Amino acid sequence: MNAARAGLALILAIAAAGAGARERAADDGGAAQRARSDRDAEAATAAYFERIRAQPPQLRALLQAMPKGGDLHSHLSGAVYAEDYLRWAGEDGLCLLRENAHLAEPPCAAPARATVAEAARSDLPLYGRAIDAMSVRGYERGGGDPLLPVHQRFFSAFDRFRPVSRRRVADMLAAVRAIAAGENTQYLEIMHLPSAARDVLDGLELPDDSDDFAAMAAALQPRLAPALARARAELDADEARAAALLGCAGAAPAAGCTIELRYQAPATRTHAPARTFATMAFAFALAEADPRFVGVNLLGPEHHPRALRDYALHMRMLAFFKQRHPRTKLSLHAGELSAELAPPRDLRDHIGQAVAVAGAERIGHGVAIAGEDGADALLRRMARQRIAVEINLSSNAAILGVAGAAHPLALYRAAGVPVVLSTDDQGVLRSDLSGEYLRAALDQGLDYRALKRIARDSLQYAFLPGASLWQGEAGGARVAACAAADASSRDDAAQPPAPACAAFLRGSDKARAQWRLERELARFERAPRLPASVR
């Protein structure tokens, strides 16, 4: 009897093994078939892209529909369009000065002033001049004040809408999320410093000529804890109101509710050294205390005399804080310069110092790379360390006068340095991320597969916490837990990932975002296309 049972058990085991092998073979065959289908869909999309390359309106429509992952370089106040600022200014009862179309507090007594609401209704020339004052609208066609260089017009725009931006943070957050949803961008890293930073800065009595960073940091320490608590409460309130404006808790939430938002805490490079140091102290402490802040940045016109004078000092300050906060990520505006704005001596080492001294994990702009001492070695280092460059084509064209073949995007790509496309200040520049992808296609010659890689890299090099979905480069082999999972399914509910993959995704914000992008790219590549225009 025992022998019979043993024989039966052996037969059943062999049958089960055979069934398992057949299931694995079927799974492998299904995976191979899905992979072929994915490649075919990508190839068809790439071919369609080339057919419409010479038709910018059709190409723009395609790129707007394309899932673009994340925008990693965006200043909150500069991301909002002038029309929104003017609408909020009208609601707040602000005035426009007829002399220069700048915003002013009431009273709005005629004839020198008009209410913003009145201008929007019945004085379109004044309203239009207000939009021009808050943006660089029309600069490529010669619009705007011919005596005011476009880079000055750009930076002065922030002063023009500051009376509104400083008190409308929640509305701004809702606005940028709505814009991102409308062009199929799923993740934003926004540069934003809560107003609670002033609790650290006001009444500051630190010496501007000290190199004793430890003593300066110790003097600031008593101010940080209450300022951080206020900053977190401030952001809690702003995010809650933004969610309410989008109806995120209602029966019909706006598409912007699906946008994942994180922040970088910036310091400003044009202040006196002690104030810049204190802002860095607050920024690093905030990034460590609040997981919504995933990094620190340094912003302001890099060609400003004080920024040029103190550049090396700022890099040493950042290195000091980076040593104290080693887990805090650092993205730095560096090399946002051209020969029009700075002499050659100032184009020779800014990116190199940001990488070698400050320890930046990403570089914003990086336009002056070709003028760096040892540019070849620096490019090799950036490629080896996977230090991504945030490319802002519209911004570089407007502020620096660098576009087309003069732009170093091709140099970075040839050197193997990761690049991502970003908006910088879409509201001021009158652009958006789809427009940046369009510029990359038309002005830089990038094809569909190159843009798809950039979309994937925007999440690969995002400061989102957690492990990547990819073992190496984005778009290559996935991690073992998700290697066999079907990321191209059109229906998440019908075909959720296998338990091991689902567990991996639950443990990583970055991998979840990447998984979502892969699903959206698969749907996009299988979508029907309009026929190419006949010419």
Outline of this structure?
The protein has 535 residues and is of the alpha/beta class. Helix content is 52%, strand content 10%.
Structure description:
The protein has helices at residues 2-51, 56-65, 76-79, 82-91, 116-122, 124-133, 150-165, 169-182, 198-201, 213-245, 273-289, 305-309, 311-324, 350-356, 375-385, 393-400, 409-414, 426-429, 433-442, 448-460, 499-506, 509-526, and strands at 70-75, 95-97, 103-104, 113-115, 187-191, 260-268, 293-299, 329-334, 362-365, 388-391, 419-421. The N and C termini lie far apart (84 Å). An eight-stranded parallel beta sheet has the order 1-5-6-7-8-9-10-11. A three-stranded antiparallel beta sheet has the order 3-2-4. 52% of the residues lie in helices and 10% in strands. It contains 22 helices and eleven strands. Strand 9, helix 15 (375-385) and strand 10 (388-391) form a beta-alpha-beta unit. It is of the alpha/beta class and 535 residues long. The chain is globular, with a radius of gyration of 26 Å. The protein has three domains: 35-54 and 481-535, no CATH class; 82-134, no CATH class; 169-460, TIM Barrel (Alpha-Beta Barrel). Helix 10 (213-245) crosses helix 11. This is adenosine deaminase. Residues 1-21 form the signal peptide. Its EC number is 3.5.4.4. Its cofactor is Zn(2+). Keywords: Hydrolase, Metal-binding, Signal, Zinc.
Pick out its properties.
535 residues, TIM Barrel, 3 domains, three-stranded antiparallel sheet, 11 strands
